Write a sequence for this structure.
């Protein structure tokens, strides 16, 4: 295992406050349209791309895969892979494209990811992960971070996570994002792996106590402002996942609690989004690719169902434009039908 020099470690400093509030990388969800929308709700949250494989960046359409807007910043690129030299090249592409962090996926349990020898199965090969991290650290100046689970399959004790973390720190990791569930690599779907293995927040708290100089971010099952604040008493940062997607306004509520930012009016958020939508439509983006991320904006409020119905029924049309969003907003404020 080749590690970066100590001199490099000293020059690559981070500000832990940058990871206080983050939104998880989620396949098929956190694309650039989703991230633009989330930024309207949360000025401070650190956003993450969907996972992109290092092979796709090295051999595929990098311009398309790395496309993002400056408005999304700070935004991190999550990579999947297990070949150090290839990951180093992909990390350089990400840095050159303007991403502020490279994150290595060591947490996804899907069969497709396992077949490519990356994701959660890499927790069985911590020395290889350390080599990957070291190669990326040597290739870029921006932080290289790791997102992992607390364990996999029968490897489900604190000692295994402790050893893994020690190797990550030795390789130069300064930020570790830990999904507080283990992963079952066989027998459970990715969805079931997000729900069935029990959460063990205490194990992540213990990790922070043992590695006080490491920035530890906790992920998994966090849905409320109160939970965010409680976790921040124990670790450096919180990563919201599905809650931020299905009820995106939770980001505004957390912003208010952590930073004192007045929550924006939801209708005003939509109005601020319209110029972006118009620009994207002019470039050939289909409206449905943007509006699918908006469905939860009015979660729990009167008229939310009507808002979702209009978007779901009309945004898929080939000629759909911003009038669909305006119609959905109008439906959201329509008086309830008489009984």
């Amino acid at each position: 295992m080749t590690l970066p020099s100590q001199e490099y470690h000293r020059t690559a400093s981070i500000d832990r406050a940058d990871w206080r509030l983050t939104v998880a990388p989620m396949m098929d969800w956190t694309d650039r349209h989703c991230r633009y929308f989330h930024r309207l709700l949360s000025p401070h949250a650190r956003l993450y791309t969907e996972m992109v494989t290092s092979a796709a960046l090295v051999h595929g359409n990098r311009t398309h895969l790395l496309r993002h807007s400056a408005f999304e910043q700070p935004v991190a690129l999550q990579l999947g892979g297990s070949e150090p030299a290839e990951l180093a090249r992909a990390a350089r592409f990400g840095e050159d494209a303007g991403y502020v962090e490279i994150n290595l996926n060591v947490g996804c349990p899907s069969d497709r990811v396992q077949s490519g020898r990356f994701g959660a199965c890499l927790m069985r090969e911590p020395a290889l992960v350390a080599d990957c991290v070291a190669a990326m650290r040597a290739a870029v100046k921006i932080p290289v971070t790791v997102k992992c689970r607390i364990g996999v399959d029968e490897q489900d004790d604190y000692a295994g996570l402790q050893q893994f973390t020690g190797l990550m720190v030795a390789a130069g990791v300064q930020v570790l994002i830990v999904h507080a569930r283990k992963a079952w690599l066989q027998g459970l779907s990715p969805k079931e792996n997000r729900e069935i293995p029990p959460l063990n927040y205490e194990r992540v708290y213990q990790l922070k106590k043992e590695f006080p100089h490491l920035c530890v971010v906790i992920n998994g099952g966090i849905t409320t402002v109160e939970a965010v604040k409680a976790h921040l008493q124990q670790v450096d940062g919180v990563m919201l996942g599905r809650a931020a997607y299905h009820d995106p306004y939770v980001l505004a509520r957390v912003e208010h609690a952590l930073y004192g930012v007045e929550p924006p009016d939801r209708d005003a958020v939509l109005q601020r989004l319209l110029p972006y939508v118009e620009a994207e439509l002019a470039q050939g983006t289909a409206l449905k690719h943007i509006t699918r991320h908006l469905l939860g904006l009015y979660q729990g409020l009167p008229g939310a169902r009507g808002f979702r119905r209009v978007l779901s029924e009309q945004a898929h049309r080939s000629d759909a434009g911003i009038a669909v969003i305006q119609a959905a907003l109008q439906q959201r404020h329509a008086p309830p039908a008489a009984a």
Summary: The longest strand covers residues 75-80. Residues 1-11 have pLDDT under 50 and may be disordered.
